[in-house]
Prior knowledge:
Strand order of the largest sheet: 1-2
Mean pLDDT: 89
Radius of gyration: 21 Å
Number of strands: 2
Helix content: over 70%
Amino acid sequence: xxxxxxxxxxxxxxxxxxxxxxxxxxxxxxxxxxxxxxxxxxxxxxxxxxxxxxxxxxxxxxxxxxxxxxxxxxxxxxxxxxxxxxxxxxxxxxxxxxxxxxxxxxxxxxxxxxxxxxxxxxxxxxxxxxxxxxxxxxxxxxxxxxxxxxxxxxxxxxxxxxxxxxxxxxxxxxxxxxxxxxxxxxxxxxxxxxxxxxxxxxxxxxxxxxxxxxxxxxxxxxxxxxxxxxxxxxxxxxxxxxxxxxxxxxxxxxxxxxxxxxxxxxxxxxxxxxxxxxxxxxxxxxxxxxxxxxxxxxxxxxxxxxxxxxxxxxxxxxxxxxxxxxxxxxxxxxxxxxxxxxxxxxxxxxxxxxxxxxxxxxxxxxxxxxxxxxxxxxxxxxxxxxxxxxxxxxxxxxxxxxxxxxxxxxxxxxxxxxxxxxxxxxxxxxxxxxxxxxxxxxxxxxxxxxxxxxxxxxxxxxxxxxxxxxx
Length: 471
């Protein structure tokens, strides 16, 4: 038992940190400085522990958890997403009058849920991780208790999320009925023997529905714009990065290259979902005036890009997915981070027009926002370009050239609404707006994200050579 706990080090560290924050909240309600420092320390140690576990692969708790390898890599990604969100949070919570200590507890438990999902060796552990993450998200979405938009977003997310969870749980039940086990390794080993059984395909289809909801892929994307817009901006940053990465980590665990190649009809469905997500996400993003809603529809489009790496069903596509999600975490956390630093106490200053002339008012922040927009658009030398390159290269190698071409075309379309914000900031005159003091921790977060994008873009091989060993 002790050996298993040591093996599951990252999960244990963050879980203990969440419990310590809970105790600190009970003892010292305000100020929240202690809770913040405990949370930062927990995620930093959890991320380092996860990184150290990457070279060593194995299982714990009787095969229920996988350790090291891809699971260790995902722990680093989740802890990075949570860490950036934490750096952005203190000044935002003060400005928005949301200084409640449970914020930090919920964020940490959300990270624990993500880690359980990425480390799951059993469908039961995956479901427990998914629910832990989802419940944290439902509450965090409605954290702006006095705003109707936040309450509405939380209710919509909860109702639709519970509905999607029902599909997913029914899919797990059908897989158990087919194989007599919930062990993912045993299910993957027995797929060939049950290839023609209808229960297998129905179970996989229902699992795909539930996971498509979590990654915000078409046609299960309807919740995204309302939830991202209504949720506190730092929470939107966390959901759109860590939450998406966690769902894709499970997609790679269950829908392995071998399974996707074997089940041709499943592969075709994935390809259609990928293509529709690219088209619908990008076309709807063009019409948005709110930057948060634009980033929400952009998230749908990026789900389509990343899914093309899953459709590829080869090592290039899978490594591309891992690299892309790390880059996407930095891009979206940075973009939402800038919005959180500039959002007014009334929840305004979130539209394109509000950022007119921003380049003159706050040159450094505008420059960083431009970096995030260029990277999201896939402009080299930033990491977003290489993320798209590797998933599209995988799609071409897997025989889905049309999907890669569609992705490139849609990336060109996306340049319009990303670069439109850059044009607003630098080439249009803005009206006077109240000055909002930029916090040091928040600025540290967005500078770190921008430097990470540049570093990953200049030296993508550092990450790619590490993740290539997983496939």
